[in-house]
Amino acid sequence: MDKNSKICVIYGGMSAEREVSLKSGKNMADALLKNFPNVSLIDADFSLAEKLAVLKPDLCVIALHGTYGEDGCVQGMLEMMGIPYTGAGVAASAVAFDKLLAKHTFIDYGLPTPKYTILKEDDKQPPFMPCVVKPARQGSSIGIRIVKDIKDYAAAVEEAFKYDSKVLCEEFIEGKELTIPVMDMQAFPPIWIRPKKGFYNYENKYTAGMTEYLLDTGLSSSRLKSLKKLAVKAYSACGCRSMARIDIIATDRKFYVIEVNTIPGMTATSLVPKSASKLGISFEDIVKRIAESASLDNK
C-alpha cells in the first residue's frame, strides 16, 4: 500500500453499536495517521455512497459494528463501487453476523458448537436449561441473557425480540470464555475473558475495570494448539479474510465455537490489541496491517 494512499475510515453507523463504532473508528484513524497522511473519517448513514463518490478513497477501513456495517451491506456497496475494504467479504460478513447462518456453517464443517433452537415470540418453555437467549443479528452481547431459572425465560425471550425478529436459544455451556483473533489464517494468542460479575455483557465489555483479560489461559500446550487450530477452522469455514475474532468456550474436555466476529472492536478495552501485544505488535502496527489487507471479493 502506497504511503500516500487516500484512506477512509468508515465508522459510527446506524446500529445499536454506534457508540462502540465511533470509538473504534477514531482510534484506528489516529493510529493510521502515524503512517499515512491522507486519512479521513466518514460517519456511515444512508448518504454514505454519495460521500465516498466525492472523496474517492483508494481503500476503506471498516470500523462499523452491527447492522449495515458488519452484515455484508456496506461490503456489497463497496464491491459495486470498486473500493477495496478491510474485513470479511459480502457473503462471509452475512454468514458470520447472522448467528443462525453461522450455526449452520459450524455444523456443516463439523465444528463443535452448543445445541440450539430457533424461537417464536410466544415460546414459554425453554428447550434447554440453563440456556442462552440471543438475537440472531446483533453484536456486543446486545439483547443476550443467560437464563438459569425458568421463571426468567419469558422475559429473556421478550428482550431478545426487541432487537431482532430472529432469536435463538442456545444450550448454556459452563466453562472458560476464550477469544482468539485470527488474521490471514494465523491465530493470535487467546485471551481468557473473566467478568468480575455476571456474564460478558455490554456493560462488562465496554466499562474499564469490569472484566479481567488474561493472556495466561491455563491451557496445556496441546490444548492451546487444538484451540488455535479450531479458531482457524471457524475463520475459514465462514470465509473470513483480514482480521476476525473467534469466541470459544472451553470446558475440561471440549471446545465449543460460539461465534465469529468479522469486525472486532478497537476500543481501549478491545481484545485484538491485547492479543497482538503479546506478539510484540503495537496498536499502530496491527491497524496498519489491517489497512494493508484491504481487498475486494471480485478482484
From TrEMBL:
GO molecular function annotations of the record: ATP binding; D-alanine-D-alanine ligase activity; metal ion binding
Annotated active site: 17, 140, 270
Enzyme class at the top of the EC tree: ligase
GO biological process: cell wall organization; peptidoglycan biosynthetic process; regulation of cell shape
Predominant place of localization: cytoplasm
Record's subcellular location: Cytoplasm
Residue sites binding Mg(2+) 1 per the record: 247, 259
Protein name per the record: D-alanine--D-alanine ligase
Source organism: Mucispirillum schaedleri ASF457
